Amino acid sequence: MATGRLRFFSMAQNGQVNISYVIPNDVPEIMTAGNKNYQRPMKTLYLLHGISGNDCDWEYNGIAEDVAFMYNMAVIMITGGNNFYLDRKATGCQFCTYAGQEVVDYTRKLFGLSDKREDTFIGGLSMGGFGAIHTALAFPETFGGVVALSSALVIHDIAGLKPGEPREGLLANYEYYREVFGDLDTIEKSDANPEVLYTRLKETGAKIPPIYMAIGTEDFLYKNNQEFRKFLEDNGADFTYEEGSGIHDWRFWNAYITKGVEWVLEKN
Amino acid sequence: MATGRLRFFSMAQNGQVNISYVIPNDVPEIMTAGNKNYQRPMKTLYLLHGISGNDCDWEYNGIAEDVAFMYNMAVIMITGGNNFYLDRKATGCQFCTYAGQEVVDYTRKLFGLSDKREDTFIGGLSMGGFGAIHTALAFPETFGGVVALSSALVIHDIAGLKPGEPREGLLANYEYYREVFGDLDTIEKSDANPEVLYTRLKETGAKIPPIYMAIGTEDFLYKNNQEFRKFLEDNGADFTYEEGSGIHDWRFWNAYITKGVEWVLEKN
Amino acid sequence: MATGRLRFFSMAQNGQVNISYVIPNDVPEIMTAGNKNYQRPMKTLYLLHGISGNDCDWEYNGIAEDVAFMYNMAVIMITGGNNFYLDRKATGCQFCTYAGQEVVDYTRKLFGLSDKREDTFIGGLSMGGFGAIHTALAFPETFGGVVALSSALVIHDIAGLKPGEPREGLLANYEYYREVFGDLDTIEKSDANPEVLYTRLKETGAKIPPIYMAIGTEDFLYKNNQEFRKFLEDNGADFTYEEGSGIHDWRFWNAYITKGVEWVLEKN
Amino acid sequence: MATGRLRFFSMAQNGQVNISYVIPNDVPEIMTAGNKNYQRPMKTLYLLHGISGNDCDWEYNGIAEDVAFMYNMAVIMITGGNNFYLDRKATGCQFCTYAGQEVVDYTRKLFGLSDKREDTFIGGLSMGGFGAIHTALAFPETFGGVVALSSALVIHDIAGLKPGEPREGLLANYEYYREVFGDLDTIEKSDANPEVLYTRLKETGAKIPPIYMAIGTEDFLYKNNQEFRKFLEDNGADFTYEEGSGIHDWRFWNAYITKGVEWVLEKN
Q1: For residue B8, which residues of chain C lie inside 8 Å, CB to CB?
Q2: Residue B259 CB neighbour total at 10 angstroms
Q3: In sequence order, which residues have a C-beta less than 8 Å from that of residue A254 and are 6 or more positions away?
Q4: Which residues pair with B74 in a beta bridge?
Q5: Which helix (H) or strand (E) is B6 found in, with range?
Q6: Beta strands in A67-137 (DSSP E)
Q7: For the segment D148-198, what is each residue's pLDDT rounded down to a tens digit?
């Protein structure tokens, strides 16, 4: 397995950005003999970090190498700052375009990855779980499945927030949310809201990537995930939901990332 | 010399950040025998990158290792995104506090660096030249000198910019500048303007770090540097200015970083 | 926590070498409030990799960050190639001197680590378990405890090996063992043998670092560890031995490294 | 440009090894408009480090990024310890096989590099200059050209060396040379000697990669390079030789690597 970290110039982020990766293209046959997942051609999983993290997290704290080895999966870990993987107008702040398009095009070219939808998945934890869902709905032709863990589906929590307003449960201030999500008074109807993207795709009859959701029952984002689960149910979405004892930590994410990967593999 | 890159959790940036460094604490005596600069105790230089760059630039493209070795200088290279090393209100966007305080405190503790003003310098190129000047004026007790190369002293260029307004010479859009610098109508009187910080220090009789400026005569920021040079002259500042043939590139920065370091060393 | 990787010039290895490290010196108080281990001053654990590994292993596959955080322990991960952390005569092949002296001196200076024996431990897995035992016995004044996991205590297995001789259980050829261990006919009486070092220390009444051993009951090195366990018992050594279900893998090492650390902490 | 460092498991070195690389596959057209070298398909240059170095050197101290950009050249920087890129019998010590075969196969697959001889070059400095010549002669079907800078062509210097024998100009001891080069009494007739490989290829009428040599006139290896130059001349080899004022340092290597690259490009 090649494991490493590279930097390249991103137009969408207007600067040098890092990508961490695990490419399982050299595992000796003897180690993969009984592994039917490894026998098929390599697929790709893009993994997104949470708030405060970066592209190293899924390698250092997460089990990216195990996922790569078990499922013959190129694992590409990107970084996008604390920006929820959303595009905004400011130069160099096209984080959704980066995650859903630029990094996909670039890594496919660099590593010769499959360019097929059914071989391309996106996942993440917390802010990255939100990002995985949102990015896949923004680029539904690109991704064949989503693994969304402990997702920070916070749109409804921050809607209508005012400068200086204290609001329970929020981890950052008005200025931060305004900068990242845009006008908070209209956010629920904006393209930052995954529900808006989903509804639009459904109305046009477009293909929608199937979604795997998981959340710990003690996670502070539990309620948010129930809301989105209900939204998907109400819309007859192709999705699954799992929960288990756990909080917002790597113990949970490392346990459920493999469940999610297996689910999206079966969907494709 | 220890050369490396580390990550740690920054409160000011609300996340894992990278620092690159060169610590010249193990050079064999035989290699430093005739080097009077090396004989004195190690000092510290914080180096800031330009737009699109990160903490690796001064190591990969710049001559950080040479500077460390020639002057017995711990070189600490930080990263701050395309944010001009300024504080803004949004959670995790205190880039001035990061550059002038948090990273200084942290690296002094981690590597046992001198905590004296006369041993502590800050430099940078382009946006990092602006940042070096601004940060030193924001934390004048911390830094004993500034090396500002091809500095992006753009405050007057962007003052009064309106949404959608085309303005010659600007490399980014209104939304970007508004996000990074705050209200553009009042920017010239705000703390984002180094001149404001300078004037305040002068009025209170505070110590002001001496400033080394250099700019290439073919650099697109040449005019901006003349304006700031005139401001410093008009205020009787302790500074020097050098220019030479050159554009906005590493050839210039690698030639002038050593001149700047020698100048600030003599000032302390 | 600072986590990173650096390179510096090693005289003992005659070249640039990498060190990976985790320095838990910036954990917010709120995260360490109930952790009595974290309240005391930082101690240091040197960790050695196994055959085919390098300084990244304990960070990427092992739980170095957890150990650092849980026990307020600077974790220094070194690399020494497939050389069993032994000195040999060839220029640049002083791997024992490197592990027991040079890297200790250098990292203490670079990071301001404690220079006390009772704050300094060494551990490793497989070849690194052998290395931890051997290095501590070669530098008994330096190390206050040893954590030896699944140790490759292979001296008796390779004694008397001849060129071309097939011998069950060996993973490398005669030329390799000859190069790394020296004359294989006299190896059991040489300084490459930890038993020789132990016996010499005992005879001179020197302080001997206490040793924590652990081995999986399904590990192919199980028998070797029983032999060394018996040697320590027969000599009335200050040591402990633990075994548990497991093979030669990270599942075992990540489970037992914390047990070992707790044991050596109590010994000091 | 992707610049990065990866690790993968090398069978030839029996362990995790690092590769540094620069892949210039994403340079915006505007930056390459007038560059005829950049317009043609990407070629590959493998670069070897000198004694005490590793795969980072050509990136950190050398101008790998410039070479990549100027010539549309994937630059792959490998590491092989202080082993002169030679195979020996000991398990995991097949450094020639690594440099000439394993790393070529692996990086071609990972990055989709050209598998044509005329697109594949090898270069190096000092020990790596020796390695480039030797490896290309060992794998003449693989490499279309050699760039050998300040090459450590030391075979004749160490021939017949005895244990403990002081011999002027040698930087390491008998044990080291014996380990790396094999029997020193027969070394001049062994496959470690590039002249032996060259002669064999010539006798069989095989294709021989053209060789670019350069050496500083103040370099301590000047004489050695004259000897090899004479050997090539006497054999009517396809080679060129350049010398210039300079010692054994990066100033020389960074000046001559581009001359060498241009020469091998014209040969193919």
Answers
A1: 1-3, 26
A2: 15
A3: A62, A63
A4: B44
A5: strand B2-10
A6: 73-77, 120-125
A7: 999 999 999 999 999 999 999 899 999 999 999 999 999 999 999 999 999
Strand partners, D87: D94
Cβ distance C133 to C198 under 8 Å? no
Spatial contact of C52 and D9, defined as CB atoms under 8 Å apart: yes
d(CA D98, CA A1): 16
Chain B residues closer than 8 Å to A81 by CB = 15, 81
Per-residue pLDDT of chain A (268 residues; tens, 9 = 90+): 899 999 999 999 999 999 999 999 877 676 777 777 777 789 999 999 999 999 999 998 899 999 999 999 999 999 999 999 999 999 999 999 999 999 999 999 999 999 999 999 999 999 999 999 999 999 999 999 999 999 999 999 999 999 999 999 899 999 999 999 999 999 999 999 999 999 999 999 999 999 999 999 999 999 999 999 999 999 999 999 999 999 999 999 999 999 999 999 999 9
Residue type, position B28, single letter? P
User: 């041993």: which residue's tokens?
Assistant: B119
Radius of gyration, CA atoms only, chain D: 18
How far apart, in whole angstroms, are the C-alpha atoms of residue C249 and residue C124?
13
Distance from CA of C191 to the nearest CA of A (A): 37
Nearest to C19 by CA among C32, C31, C2: C2
What Cα–Cα distance (Å) separates residue D210 from each residue in D202, D205, D263?
13, 14, 9
Each residue of B134-148: pLDDT tens digit? 999 999 999 999 999
Residues of A in contact with C61 (CB under 8 A): 65
* Location of structure tokens 């990669």: D209
- D182 burial type by CB count under 10 A (0-12 exposed, 13-18 middle, 19+ buried): middle
Res C22: pLDDT: 96
DSSP state of C93: -
Go through chain B and tell me how many residues it has.
268
> C140: closest CA among C47, C196, C207?
C207
Q: Spell out which chain C residues touch chain D, with contact meaning CB-CB distance below 8 angstroms.
A: 7, 9, 14-16, 51-54, 56-57, 81-82, 88-93, 171-173, 175-176, 178-179
What average pLDDT does this structure show over B119-135? 98
Q: Which of C4, C26, C75, C27 is nearest to C258 (CA)?
A: C75
Q: Which residues of A4-32 are buried (b: 16+ CB within 10 A; e: fewer)?
A: bbbbbbbebbbbbbbbbbbbbbbeeeeeb
CB-CB under 8 Å, D59 with B60: yes
Beta bridge partners of B75: B22, B45
ipTM reported for the complex, 2 dp: 0.93
User: Residue C122 pLDDT > 80, yes or no?
Assistant: yes
Rounded alpha-carbon distances, angstroms, from residue B173 to A92, B50, B131: 10, 17, 20
Q: Which helix (H) or strand (E) holds B5?
A: strand B2-10
Nearest to B144 by CA among B242, B212, B218, B75: B212
Interface test with D, best of B20, B59, B60 (most D CBs within 10 A): B60
Handedness of CA B36, B39, B45, B50 (dihedral sign): positive
At residue B143's C-alpha, the angle toward residues B142 and B149, to 5°, is: 150
Alpha-carbon distances of A102 from A13, B78, B235, rounded to whole Å? 10, 26, 48
Angle, helix B64-71 to helix B250-266, in steps of 10 degrees: 20
Beta strands of chain A (E only): which ranges? 2-10, 15-23, 43-48, 73-77, 120-125, 145-149, 211-216, 239-244
- Give the C-alpha separation, D190 to D113, whole Å: 33
- Cβ neighbours, 10 Å, residue C253: 27
Which residues on D lie below 8 Å from B65 (Cβ)?
60-61
